[in-house]
Specification:
By secondary structure, this protein is of the alpha+beta class. The chain is built from seven helices and 18 strands. It is globular, with a radius of gyration of 18 Å.
């Protein structure tokens, strides 16, 4: 049973300043949407949108910061606290209300029924669209997750935003360190209705469709990603983001021009450190189309 969850739709990245974080991602060769306020929630975001491989899902990074603390719920204040980092995997479902009921029946603990929202999204040079969506707020889990329902999915798949100078194709994965990976994986196997497997790099991976959660101990993560600084004294934490690209050579040239540091990994990948990506390292992996 997957509780109506179709895919890991996007990653909510908590940042101190969404405008500044967007500029950092632009230096890495991503096309980033303008700052957009979600006024009823007191939040604002900039997004790095990709083409989606999964019908019914978007695919993006959400760079989110607090704009009006007085409007931010206790749940979101807690979720976004504790420094810059991926704060939540956001799953997508075609029906948030049905998903909420299924999660409750399955023993999960969503904090409140879905919130249905609509907001203005302004574009440079004029033009405004009004995406509508529903969200189930983050809930207790080994690694925080929440759920969304897109009511204007086409707005997240527009070619002018999903085409990137660095040749990025989309999300591959979110990477996490855990003291007990099997406990984390068991939770998400139950949520996704899917079994975990070991990937080519030696990390365990579980996924509802195409975008995966990759988990390892500190030693396993360090073996795959040398010189990565890992958080201390946590049961589990998000530490990295995997991005699929057309050409690593093109990514390297762009990063060199922008002065963004990176490390070439032994396998067909390169890594931008968390210090230049607002809290999580970014692994670029070349894939054949």
């Amino acid at each position: 049973m997957n509780h109506g969850i179709v895919e890991i739709d996007h990653l909510m990245c908590g940042v101190d300043d969404a405008e500044r974080a967007g500029t950092s991602f632009e230096r890495m060769g991503f096309r980033v949407t303008p700052l957009s306020a979600i006024e009823p929630m007191g939040l604002g975001n900039r997004c790095v949108l990709f083409a989606s491989r999964t019908p019914g899902a978007a695919c993006y990074l959400e760079l989110m910061s607090i704009l009006d603390a007085a409007k931010v719920s206790t749940t979101m204040t807690r979720t976004l606290g504790g420094g810059e980092r991926v704060k939540s995997m956001v799953m997508v479902t075609p029906d948030c209300d049905a998903c909420y009921q299924s999660l409750l029946a399955g023993g999960f603990a969503p904090p409140s029924p879905p919130i249905h929202l609509q907001r203005d999204w302004h574009f440079p040079g004029g033009g405004t669209v009004r995406p509508a969506f529903a969200v189930i707020l983050p809930m207790p889990a080994p690694l925080t997750f929440n759920v969304c329902q897109h009511k204007s999915l086409d707005l997240y798949l527009r070619l002018e935003w999903t085409s990137h100078p660095n040749g990025a194709l989309g999300l591959d994965s979110v990477i996490a360190v855990a003291r007990e990976p099997q406990a984390v994986l068991g939770f998400y196997e139950r949520l996704f209705g899917a079994r975990a497997a070991t990937d080519a790099a030696g990390l365990a991976r579980v996924s509802p469709a195409n975008v995966g959660l990759r988990v390892g101990t500190a030693a396993q993560i360090a073996a795959v990603f040398p010189d990565v600084e890992l958080p201390d004294a946590q049961t589990a934490a998000y530490v990295g983001i995997g991005i699929r690209v057309v050409s690593l050579a093109s990514v390297r040239r762009l990063l060199d021009r922008s002065g963004v540091p990176y490390e070439v990994l032994a396998r067909n990948a390169l890594l931008v450190p968390a210090s230049h990506a607002h809290g999580n390292f970014i692994e670029f992996t070349e894939v054949s189309q």
